[in-house]
Amino acid sequence: MKLNLIVIYIFVYLLISCGLNDQHRDVNHTFDIADFDSIFQQINKVELEINNKNIFFLYNAQFFFLKDKKMVVIDNRGKKVILYSQNGKFIKMIGNIGRGPGELIEPYCGIADSLDNILIYDLAQMIINKYNPDGNFVSTIKLKKYMEKIYISSKQNIFFYTSQYFFDNKIVFKYSPNFDFLNAFALPLNEFKESNIMQCGGIALDQYENSYVISPYNYLIRKYDTNGTPLLYYHINPSFFKETKKMPKEEPHEFKRWIKEATPIVDILLFSNKYLFVTVRDIDKKRNYVDIYLIRGDQIKYCKTVLINHLFFSMHTSQDYFYTLSEDEDKMYLNKYELNIKYLKDCDEKIQ
Fold it and tell me: 220: domain range?
């Protein structure tokens, strides 16, 4: 009887161990560096019209597009939301500063819904202001949750990401297109509660509404299904990434040193439902590194590392194009690129 119990115990242990191992993938990182221009071919560069009223701080700017190719720029440092034409012409400011209908205190992130309505999250008020495609106020949705990034899925559901897990110890929140709460999932990947100061980390959504969640301060990407059930986690090794020490709270000099030495994982982007872009920021040397990973089924394969000598802070993928905002001699530009698939052909062929 005792022998049978031991055999059963060993069998269960092996079964659980195998199950856990099946959920883990180590991603080999050979650090194959490439020049930005060899991977991304620039096909357009548009200067954005700026003046004293609509100039924005590139460091804190986020942007997204409407179906008619208009662009919305959110500058949370300058507390403004700007609507541009596809040719970079200034159209209007969206929302005044204040707490009244349609007004914003701290616009932080945003997205366009399926009808091209503009959704802007106000961090200070913890609300979503909804504007029509012309930038006119429609309604307000009260969330009462601290969020940092907002996404929309192929099913038009709304996903929020936060690096501060004050709400049920979760960092991803899913809502219906009408903002009915659906689910909260993804356990925090670290104990670094102050990471929001960098606006780092995030999620990428594929065409099946699976989400890839990455932490700013460790080596893991975790994959969840549409219901928030954990599927797999991938151990990656981002280029030039250094684990960041806990941010000092009192000493100003130590804080400046912490900022200088930090190399956080800024973001994760999905390109053409095939490639993951993981961006690491080297703040001290003022440059970014984009690690490109190929996705095939449940596998992720490292392809290339792209060195970007200038430090742009805003990136966006839309369909088969990659966009950045950059600054040159006090002028702001929207840069449009396409991926040089031929350069990544070897990576695609070698994955099993």
Answer: 25-350
